[in-house]
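Known limitations

Structure tokens in this collection are predictions and should be treated as such. Users comparing against experimental data should check residue numbering before alignment. To illustrate the layout, the record for Isoprenyl transferase is reproduced below. The input appears on top and the generated tokens appear beneath it.
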Amino acid sequence: MRNPLYSAYERRLVKELGRTAVPRHVGMIVDGNRRFAKARGAAADAGHRAGAAKIADFLEWCEDAGVEVVTLWLLSTDNLRRPQDELTPLLRIIEGVVADLAASGRWRMHPAGALDLLPVETAATLRRAAEMTEGVDGLVVNVAVGYGGRQEIADAVRSLLLTRAAEGADLAEVARDLTVEDIGDHLYTKGQPDPDLVIRTSGEQRLSGFLLWQSAHSEYYFCEVYWPEFRRVDFLRALRSYADRHRRFGG
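Generated tokens:
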């Protein structure tokens, strides 16, 4: 049974936020699964499963608030160097949650990462999720698996150069005419608004390269709780913090 004081506080936050601007795009660094498990004497994969179970709830909260795009960072390129006995179960958990989210038909799934660095089955699961939900008119969910901010920029520049080369341009011509918009058109999140708000759980106060290019003007919110313990009230507090800030673009 929920604490009545908690419920009352949550209702108050919802009422306050009804009069404020909501971020169009929320980036979420889901951190703390392993520490959540360790604190309970459980194996790391138990923490990852608990974290996976939280994702659908979080997407519902975002949907209810009016958010249009969510980017979930589930696995970094650095994580791919973990020992196989830890990485393989984590990949199976990610594949399972992505398949379940796609099967629900509620959200439009979009892979955001270097799929060529992932195991074949993991990459195939992400591609199938995108294909299954291509026609869904709802919250866009970027699933950042095999994601690194520097890797994304390198991939964007590579894609840009290959595209221009196929069009017959030479390197000097490309360098002369290159703009930041050109690079933006080749990012994993091309065509989407940049994140207005980036949230990180577990108390760590760093971005670790998440949406490195896109987050130049983002607001950040660092939450002490581990991701599996993240509650709707924690999300509402993040939205309230965002609403209370005066955003400055370049000043």
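For this record: The CA atoms of residues 217 and 248 lie 8 Å apart. The radius of gyration is 19 Å. Please report discrepancies through the issue tracker.
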